[in-house]
Amino acid sequence: MSEAEGCVSVWEWLCALHLDQYFPVFQDAGFGTLLECQGLTQDQLETIGIKLPGHRKRILVSLQKTHHHTHPEREPVSRGERPVPKERSVFREEERDGERPRPVPKERTKYRSVPVETLDCGQTSPHPNPTFCPTTPNPNSTSYSTAPHSTAQDPPLPPSPSQHPKRPHTTPSLSSSLTLSPLSAPLSPPLSPPLSPPLSAPLTSSPFSAPLSPPLPPPLPPPLSAPLSAPLSPHHLSQPLSHLLSHLLSQPLSHLITSPTSSLTSSPTSSLSRVLAQPPRDGPSPVLKMGWLDKNPPQGSLYYQRRWVKLDVDYLRYFDNDKEVYSKRIIPTAAITGVTNVGEQKFEVVTTNRTFLFRAESDFERNEWVSVLQNFTRGCQEGSRVITSSVPHSSMTPGSPLTPDQQGYLELRGLRSKLYTVVSGDKVFLYKNMEDYRLGIGITSIDMNVGNVKDTDRRSFDLTTPYRIFSFLADSEQHKDQWVEAMREAIGEALSNSEVANQIWAEPSNGCCADCGAAKPEWAAINLCVVVCKRCAGEHRGLGPSISKVRSLKMDRRVWTEELIQVFLLLGNERLNRFWAANVPPSEALSPTSCSEDRRRFISSKYRQGKYRKYHPLYGNQEELNNALCINVQCSDVLETLCLVFCGADVNCSTGQADCPSPLSLALAHNQKLQAQFLSHNLNTGIYMLYFSVIMSPQHYSPQHPVTHNGFLFKTASMARPITERKAREEFSRRWCMLNDGNFSYYESDKTSTPNGTLKSTEIVCLAVNTPEKHGYYDHTFELYSDSERIYLFGTDDPDSHREWVKSITKTFIPSNAEGLLRLAFERIGRLRYKDGLNLQSPRVGWFALVGSSLHAYLEDSVEEEEIHLRKLQELSIQQENEVLVLVERGRTLYIEGERKLDFQGWCVSMQRAAGSAGDSLSQQQLTETDIPVIVDRCIDYITQCGLTSEGIYRKSGVNSRVAALCEAFRRDARSVRLKEGEHQVDDVSNTLKRFFRESGEGLFTIQAASAWLSTPEESRKICQYQLLLSQLPRVNKATLRALVNHLYCVQRFAELNQMNLHNLAIVFGPTLFQSDGKDYTAGLVVEELIEHYTDVFEVDELQLKRQLDEITAIIKASGSAGDFICTVYLEEKKETTEQHVKIPGSMTAAELTCEILDRRKIQVREKDYWSCWEISQKEETERPLHHLERVLPIIHSLGTDSHLLVKKHLAMEAIRIYLASKVDVSKHGMVKFREERSILGLGLNTGSFHDRYFILSTASLRMYKEVRSNRPEREWQVKNLRVYLGIKKKLRPPTCWGLTLINGSEKQEKPERQQWYLCCDTQTEMREWFSTFLTIQYDGNVWPADAVQTRVTRALPADTRHGNVALIPLRGSENEMRNSVAAFTADPLQNIPVTTPPPLPHTHLCL
Questions:
Q1: What's the longest Cα–Cα distance across the chain?
Q2: Where are the annotated segments for Disordered (predicted)?
Q3: Which residue among 91, 118, 528, 638 is least crowded, i.e. fewest CB within 10 A of its CB?
Q4: Three-class DSSP category at 662
């Protein structure tokens, strides 16, 4: 870019582009000159505030063309080959016909593009006339002409001084040769279709032209002192005309008006530049001449057609009549190559591809038309010839000066052929074909500032103007949508004023639609205070003005007061969506590509029903809402006012003040203009009354993907139950299937056009990929689950076709935010409803895919994909009554619900199978979070708790049947097995652990690495060798070996109690872990060395290991081995004569303590005597019956000084059992008076009162609601963590004496009062029912023991029954004896081995 070009101001450049409204935008962005604007991009222009795509394109094209002038992408012209100009043909006077008078050369009519007054001319025409007339040339002027055969490739010779002596005055320039009326509008470069190619021949006058009367000499401009600072360089002259015009447009007016000196050598080129450099017009081009003419049709008929013809700076147009607005033909003046007289009253207008023949009513009128046309077009053409002939001819065809936003063929109803249509800027041009478009000769142009576009049919649409309706028909529905969008953008560009929009968009969140997120929304709901895009605005209008008042940011200028703009800037879409869209599930959220139906449903749910809003704390209390509104309008918090209004507050409520009777007047009185502005737009809004309507069920939206696929598949009849049986070949039918536009259709054959059935993508809730041969004949099958509770089974022989179908169908119903699931080799994929965290009331929608033993999910509250390892879950259960699948991870519980029963059953079966053990290897087992098989973890934990002091642990065999049953239970679902000290024996558990390792598929050390472990290395290298081998083990094997060796290390540390030293453990576990016969002691030696060097091999922290051993020691002491706890228990009442001092072991239950007290007092238990142990709190005035399986020792430790244990009859137990037996549903709900104990800070006083609340007690939680119709609980407690006591303190003044006290038993604080809640019932029966429901939920229905007598007999027997009734293996023999015994033992570890043993114990242990 030259220095002169770079110094052009942005204002002058934008004026030349008709975009001067953006000058403040560029000025604010720091752009002052054209040079500083180089390098701008689409995004940068949009960022600084240029929102319309057409305007951005126009600016970028101008910048690119200006840059192209300096950096042309063409091969350089050789300097050595200078073109030789062809000699001009000069016609001398003596060669002409002597009889014919020499014609006086007629001066060109040159048109000024600004009124004369703007140029401050020294003189004006003595006869001002708005009609343009030809002028007489100055006698002293120099005229240039070229031979008729000169071309663009042959530039004319420059005039020599001898042939053309200088004169005192030059030819008047184009900008000074025409005088306009003061009423004439200024002219500007035409916004026209493409210009014609460079002219190949000069424009010549016909010899039959009538002589013209000499007009008055034209006025000359006064001398100007500003020289031409940006002359045309030779490179500029080498560019096509359109490029040159673009360059000239970028020059300021002051640079293009020459001084008196330069005017002496002015040329047609400089004259042309002066015209093009004038400021742009704001309105249409002024008409130079118009009138009635007869036009000969193109076929050359003898009959002429009468046409109304108009000539302006841009076009020559002709119409059917003078009332028509849209022409029959438009001919750009730049495309006219010649105008000649052809006879009486006739003249021709010649273009590059066609000649138009006109006939006037008289010769005088014909001469006027010819004169005006010739004088107007000659200047532009000669200027074009000078420019294009100075360089070799370019093959580039000049394009349209306006960049088309949309172009192509459209069928116009009423015509037989299609028209080539172009949308450019704020106009629509119609051409006969593409060739006419390239030449610029069109039919008509439509100004879109008076247009409106309307969809009429699948492929048709109407462009409506006040003068005519244009009905277009596109090739397809997709093309129709593109045309409609382009024309609507043209209308917006014609009517737009971006001042308000730029101010609103200054808030970043307003730059995206509040509903769908589309960029640069241009509409707003002024009462809802949200900024929305055009498509969402259409759906807002459908809600009606009582709900949403839609206004344009660019066209409705009057409504946008400064206060309203400030409201939108203060709130912003982001803050507003925290209220309007606080609970939008991902499946219902909109995207910029969402269809109209989904937009309508979402916007109605969001604003009409308030489905996703954030509830105000006062919601439902009309009086409180109105009071809060009256208070809040006096401050500046507009968002709080909006929340109150749209949660039910009455905008027209009474304030109770005579001078300010309404909230609006109250806001004005306190000078809260923004509050008043918001309230004024909501005075007649009835939206808040609709919020109390019933919330409709959610409809999940899945964005459509442009996926197409077709082919043959084999299909069975759809079913309404799970497909479990194998299908025969005859049950499959071959069908032609097609996937298109989100619809999956199947046909009888590929020849039929009517489908047998169709599944929409929105109807598909799940797709399941079946394992080979699951359904019989076809190996590769998949199932589709629809929301109408039907299953569709499809199959194929080709695995590639099967894979492609599954991938294509899945793409149609999986939303874009969950497309990451498509890359997985899933077995089942679909949408499910779920609850988690604190949101347990309203389910949300997530997208899930089951891959092996992992569940991949895209949840609503997470952006990234989550992976749930099903085999690592702490719990996986199904609540059949609620049809809920419960997944419990560490620190998180996920409740999954199926949208349909059939779909939910399939997910449950698949996830339970995936979460279970899939084989014998360690990696296929259910695992803990540390990758240890659950069976190993449970067995080690139980033995650590109950068996470390058992003599001969791991060497004694358990009962074969019980061991087999335990192994089967762990194999079926290890997660559900709970090992309990009264129900399972230590030896049974230890043998279960050994059997698991012996029967595992690859063994703990793996088959491949076992030999390396058994190869004994040198003593100095043992530790390093074991560490190396350990690092090579699989992840699960490594974690399991570490956990087992840690456990065995702890066992041998207490060898003085269990007699299992390091050597004995190695003998037992060596053959077991290596799955050998036990004859070779190498396996035992490896195990022995791993245990001995445990801290070195596994790099264990000594401090952590010491802490673990201390915990085990504490467990042993707590279990009674180091002394029992002595406690005082009372019988029936607390007094000295009834107290009993009892030794309480750690395993004693409440039932055992009760039996022992009754046995001591020799009390006979009769039928229906429900003796139980009670926890009594005198301070709290409460009591609680202990459950018969509840451990007593932890209760004793938690008792305060004012609490004690009491054994007495449970008088209500019979009624409780009868009530529970008759109860069908385990849950309970109802109204209860509630009080929470709260302490006033700093005063030490308690406060609170009883209020009616609605409670729901279910298997998982206790939820409290403010009222029955509330949908969000105020409080929620986990039932398992609550301790329920009978009674309430009298000082709380309960309404009745039938109450329950709830204490959170999972938390420990210094002041338990802060964890207490009180429920007060109206009757004793009601209290008993609530208490019974708590008991049955907390203890899984086991409220009272089935056989109380057996419990009493069990406690009467001696307690030492650890060794069972089996023979022991010798523990203290020699090493050889131990090896032999181990060999026999490992051959069948569960059989009793006949060896020398101590005599059997004299009793048999009875199980509870």
A1: 162
A2: 64-227, 258-282
A3: 91
A4: coil
